[in-house]
Q: What sequence folds into this?
């Protein structure tokens, strides 16, 4: 049986007053002000969704948008099995956030989202906006999500996103399906990926110890200024013998 072990973290950062990020693993959601690495482990009996959302827009709007996105998805993911299921759910979430954003005080309400859906047969990666998903294979880090962001004259991504959940435009989520196999993933908001250099981020996840990886990301982001909210999930998939799982359950 496949099991997933996740180190989850979200934090307001060093310069913001409110945390507009949120993280979710299965039915667990967190949007705390002061981050603490939380470890979750579960068998993949039903689809397990790990996701990060980075909200934006209006007074308290970003905080609300990211929370709506992840809490709404939590009620839909048990039935996910295909890329179409995920696309339909993201469109539904998009509409829910858009309806809340009708309030003039919440003008511009929206959120990015990035995540993975782990089932018994496959792993599906999805994102809207510039929050990212990376694969980690024997310490090698590779981005597998697609940034929806404006690029500068040097071709580098900026913090201006071209689509997000809750905006009055046609939604085109990025969704890719992969065979299920043991391995790791980093899912993060741009409060991590835009602050830590590619080299530093690769170095942070090189250890086989997820505790050490999580600490390196937290420390590296704060040392680089943590000017934005910052959130990440480090997920490790592994095959666990059924008898071992039964022993744990007992």
A:
């Amino acid at each position: 049986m496949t099991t997933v072990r996740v180190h989850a973290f979200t934090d307001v950062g060093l310069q913001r007053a409110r945390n507009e990020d949120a993280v979710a693993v299965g039915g667990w959601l967190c949007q705390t002000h002061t981050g603490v690495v939380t470890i979750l482990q579960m068998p993949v009996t039903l689809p397990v969704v790990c996701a990060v959302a980075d909200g934006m827009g209006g007074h308290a709007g970003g905080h609300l948008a990211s929370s709506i996105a992840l809490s709404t998805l939590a009620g839909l993911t048990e039935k996910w099995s295909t890329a179409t299921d995920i696309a339909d759910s993201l469109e539904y979430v998009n509409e829910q956030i858009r309806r809340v954003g009708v309030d003039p005080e919440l003008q511009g309400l929206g959120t990015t989202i990035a995540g993975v859906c782990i089932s018994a047969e496959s792993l599906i990666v999805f994102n809207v906006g510039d929050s990212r998903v990376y694969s980690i294979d024997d310490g090698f880090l590779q981005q597998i999500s697609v940034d929806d962001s404006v690029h500068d004259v040097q071709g580098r991504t900026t913090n201006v996103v071209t689509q997000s959940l809750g905006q009055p435009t046609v939604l085109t989520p990025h969704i890719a399906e992969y065979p299920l196999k043991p391995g790791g993933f980093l899912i993060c908001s741009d409060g991590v990926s835009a602050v830590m250099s590619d080299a530093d981020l690769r170095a942070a996840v090189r250890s086989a110890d997820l505790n050490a990886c999580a600490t390196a990301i937290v420390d590296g982001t704060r040392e680089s200024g943590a000017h934005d909210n910052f959130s990440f999930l480090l997920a490790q998939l592994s095959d666990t013998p059924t008898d071992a799982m039964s022993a744990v359950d007992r």
